[in-house]
Every structure is written in C-alpha cells, then in structure tokens.
Amino acid sequence: MKSMKLLGAGLALAATAACAPVVQGGPPMALAPEWVEGARVDVIYLSSDWLQSEEDFADTFTDEVREELARCAAGPRRVNLRVHLDDLRRAGRLEVLLNGEGMHTLSGLAEFTDPQSGAVVGRYPISVATQAGGRLAGLVGDRQMMVSEEWGRALCMEAFGRNPRGPSIANATSG
Predict the structure, then answer these.
(1) Strand 39-48 vs strand 77-89: parallel, antiparallel, or unpaired?
(2) Is the pTM of the predicted complex or chain greater than 0.90?
(3) What pLDDT is stored for residue 167 in this prediction?
(4) Residues of the chain falling short of pLDDT 50
(5) Cα–Cα distance, 158 to 33 (Å, whole number)
C-alpha cells in the first residue's frame, strides 16, 4: 500500500513537472555569428502553459519547427532548442466558415543552447499570426500545423536572418 502511495505521488510530480518551462528566460539575446553561420538544431525540448489544443499539438509543433529549421540552420555545429509556448489561439472552424476569414496566433520563447555546456547561446521571443486560409481551409485545414509552421519560419528569420522558403502551394502559410 505504501508503495502505491509513493507511485501515485511520483506520477503526480512527473505530471506537474512536464508543464514546467524548459527555458531559463531572460532578455532577448542574438546568436553569435559563428552560431548563425554554422548551427544545426539537434534536439527540441518543448514546454507550455495550459493551451487549448489537440492532443497531438506537441508532435505537430516540433515536426513543423524542425522542418523549417532544417532549411535555415543546416550547418555542422550542433545546437539544442528549448521552447516554452505561452499562448495559442486558433480561429474557430464555424467562425471561419461563416466569415470566410480568421487568424491563428502562437507566442512563446525560444532558447538555443550549446549541447556541450548547456549554456544559452541565443534567446528569442516569437509571436506570430497567420490567416486561417478562407472557408475551405478554415473548415478542414490543420490549424495547429499552420501556426506552427509560421512560428518556425519566424524563428528562422529572427535567429538566422533568412526565410527558409518563400510562399508556395506546398506551404501552409503565406510565408
């Protein structure tokens, strides 16, 4: 019985720890030129406040951000990314169907860390907004994918000074 109580307490601690921010926080800090020119993101760590999202949001977000970063940070020097998201707002499907428009927004803090020392080498607050895409996209589109792709693209612009790709039919956002 005692071991069951300890197991329950351990699980409760693990569940609450999963929501703790993975970032240190602090003022924005630009990457040094050697990181901008040679970085390649190795591992992405994600934490968030209580967001209204689908259960697969963490996977969708990390996949989309990794895809964008692979295009703008493809150097030989490994760097880790820690992200804490504090706000996600998606346009309602019915609202977009009726109005033909809507916005998805996402904000959070990105910290790049040196995997050898653990030191923060860059810190960027990122806030984005992207169009819901009209009636059809608003009804059936992957809202989380759209805003995650836009967030990854904004991180590329802020940290590395380059857009990983321009607008095209293959992109979920306008770029």
Answers:
(1) parallel
(2) no
(3) 63
(4) 1-18, 175
(5) 13
